[in-house]
Specification:
seven-stranded parallel beta sheet; elongated; 29% helix; alpha/beta; binds NADP nicotinamide-adenine-dinucleotide phosphate; six-stranded mixed beta sheet
Length: 318
């Protein structure tokens, strides 16, 4: 990994560094940290030797180069992500690093994207768009309302709960499901029994060894005819080959913000199905994001350097 030696040498004698992903995190100055704060958005030359970094706040999605540099960051104590998902950094992380994610930052935006996908699929918005391009005033098939639909929310964390609040305003019946069962929330063991009950199944779980292909051919076959599966989590949570088979039969519909693989290759069969709506992983891609993320990173830095407990710890370094 290359790094900017001249800049590094200027503060070599100082404490280990902090890397921040946005140039205008001005609030960081007011913290008066006992460490040099360097800007690195994951592109170009790393402004420090990876060994000299103690706290790394990483943008999302991180370019491959910054992931490889993680392997060389042997003095790293904290990796702060700006995403909720963390599966992509695990293979590059030393066991002594405390990993923090940021589930609150993109939850509303991702839930809203899920809401868009659901409404657009039920209303067949794709036909309106195609007809507008063709300047055609044709009456499509009657619209399918969302009121009264039963929605199975698989994953009831930040995104699942935000989506639940939005859906409840539309008169839907919501069935939340999470890893651990609790009052009003079903546990993952109940999944096979709940799938056939749902008109809409939404995936909002992290990608882990337990959720990879959580929805496979068998679970897809349990879905009601004409029901809709919505994936706003990670592509690999849904078995793509099994989904392609099910869509080919025309029995169910899909709305996908995430796919496996990503980006979806031009010749992939998923593009061709009229019963599948696809958005290019835009769930958390929202305008005011950097400002919100900056405030969170600054608070995490303040906590870390004043010895307070960090928030959103996914894995504690050993
Ligand atoms: N499309 C996008 O642009 C986008 C944007 C942001 C995030 N995401 C993805 O969405 C995922 C979820 O985000 P979040 O912020 O809602 O995460 P979160 O707050 O950590 O919530 C995750 C939920 O999933 C549940 N869960 C975990 N493993 C499960 C299993 N095996 N079976 C059933 N439920 C399980 C958890 O159960 P417990 O409550 O019992 O722990 C929790 O309710 C992220 O990890 C990320 O991959 C996508």
């Amino acid at each position: 990994m290359q790094y900017d030696r001249a800049r590094f040498q200027a503060w070599e004698a100082e404490a280990l560094a902090v890397l921040v992903p946005y140039k205008d995190i001005t609030q960081v100055q007011s913290l008066d940290l006992p460490a040099p704060v360097l800007f690195y958005d994951g592109h170009g030359v790393l402004p420090a030797n990876p060994d000299s970094v103690e706290f790394w706040a990483m943008p999302h999605p991180p370019p491959r180069a910054s992931l490889s540099a993680l392997r060389e960051a042997r003095n790293l104590k904290v990796l702060q992500l700006t995403s909720s998902g963390f599966d992509h950094v695990l293979p590059f992380l030393h066991s002594n690093v405390t990993l923090c994610n940021a589930p609150g930052l993109r939850a509303e935006a991702t839930a809203e994207a899920g809401m868009c996908l659901i409404l657009a699929s039920l209303n067949d918005v794709a036909t309106w768009v195609i007809q507008k391009q063709q300047r055609l005033w044709n009456w499509p098939a009657p619209r399918e309302g969302i009121a009264g639909k039963r929605v199975l929310l698989i994953g009831f964390g930040a995104i699942g709960q935000a989506l639940s609040r939005m859906l409840s305003g539309f008169g839907t019946e919501i069935i939340p499901l999470a890893r651990r069962p609790r009052s009003g929330v079903a546990g993952s063991d109940e999944l096979p029994g709940l799938i056939p009950e749902a008109d809409i199944v939404v995936l909002a779980v992290p990608l882990t060894s337990a959720t990879r292909h959580l929805i496979d051919a068998e679970k897809l076959s349990l879905m009601k005819a004409e029901s809709l599966i919505v994936n706003i989590s990670r592509g690999e949570v849904l078995d793509t080959d099994a989904l392609v088979e099910e869509l080919r039969r025309g029995r169910i519909r899909a709305a996908l913000d995430v796919t496996d693989p990503e980006p979806l290759p031009e010749d992939h069969p998923l593009w061709g199905f009229p019963n599948a709506l696809i958005s290019p992983h835009i769930g958390g891609h929202i305008k005011d994001f950097e400002e919100k993320a900056s405030r969170f990173i600054v608070q995490q830095l303040r906590r870390y350097y004043s010895g307070e407990r960090l928030e959103c710890v996914v894995e504690t370094g050993t």
